[in-house]
Amino acid sequence: xxxxxxxxxxxxxxxxTTALLPVLAIIWTTQVLRRINLVTDSGQSxxxxxLLATMILPTIIATVLxxxxxxxxxxxxxxxxxxxxxxxxxxxxxPRRTIQRPLLMLAGGLSIFSLVMLGFVExxxxxxxxxxxxxxxxxxxxSVIEEKTFRQIEPGLYVQISERQAGRKMKGLLVAxxxxxxSELIYYAREGAVEETGKALVMxxxxxxxxxxxxxxxxxxxxxxxFDLSDLSEERGQARFGAKDRDLFYLMDPDPLDERYVSxxxxxxxxxxxxxxxxxxxxxxxxxxxxxxxxxxxxxxxRLHPMASALLMSLTIFWASNxxxxxxxxxxxxxxxxxxxxxxxGAVAAFxxxxxxxxxxxxxxxxxxxxxxxxTQKRLGTGTxxxx
Length: 388
Description:
Blueprint: H1 3-33, H2 37-42, H3 46-56, H4 58-82, H5 85-91, H6 97-136, H7 140-143, E1 151-154, E2 157-164, E3 169-177, E4 184-194, E5 200-211, E6 217-228, H8 230-237, H9 248-252, H10 259-263, H11 265-278, H12 281-293, H13 306-328, H14 335-354, H15 363-387
Antiparallel strand pairs: 1-2, 2-3, 3-4, 4-5, 5-6
Helix pairs in contact: 1-4, 1-6, 4-6, 4-12, 4-13, 6-12, 11-13, 11-14, 12-13, 12-14, 13-14
Pfam family, one: LptF_LptG
Protein name: LPS export ABC transporter permease LptF
InterPro entries: LptF, LptG/LptF_permease
């Protein structure tokens, strides 16, 4: 690689990293805060929460990375154009591939990296996160760690305790069970404990109040009563994995007995092709960025900032790709569109680069924008002109 290519690549990588890290930190923080209930609800340690936060990070890298590349390329090339470096490169007779080659090589490497992240690393981290959360909530006792507070164990089942004691013992239990529409049950007990297996809540010295649909209430006192938790513990301790939690090889050949696959096979098809097509985003966005600001231009040329233009185009392609993915979830006939959106956009950008063309607005739109700019200058530029 030539010295000039190394210089351009080094500047782009520096700006790419500068843009990637803050945006990644912001999105990661918002995702982590959504899981803060792991500590408040299940009584997990801060170490467990930090481990969970670390596993969330790889699941968002592949989404942020292409846009950070757009910012890195457009900012670097725009700065070089403003400093007349691109004009000097053209005047020296250097071919355009001097600018394009290192950036396309970087984009190609990031595309391969994105495929690995989307295909294998991200689903593995999702599985670990789901397993960790399911394990944390499997124990009923950990779910009611806060005293004198109603805690919903699952829809229709609430538990409150007055005091927690050493071991697995509790005092002042109140269990409200309305999961069965045929009857509402309310259990009161002076004390109780969850078995070590987590299969039953043993209550002592209490009563159960049963309310029938017609309003009749029956009260039964008991010395000892075991509230069955076996189904609840198994359900809460078992993580359910969907299409987004499976790796690329599994999506290519799903288990025909997988309940999620049997109920929604199109989700697996859409997820498979989404990951493959999304891996092209770094290369496609790099081509768009080079198409917009890859050549020397006059400072007097009135146009939207190159970074804004490139980000707007990239976001449009990203949103269109997600919309097509939602269509594939309803019908596999839309699968070709998942590849047509990024590859078609990249092909158009590559064609314009090869033919040395610049993207321009249609004449009608350009005339309208020019009219708006002229009217704005007349309204705001009168005072400035007289002062000059």
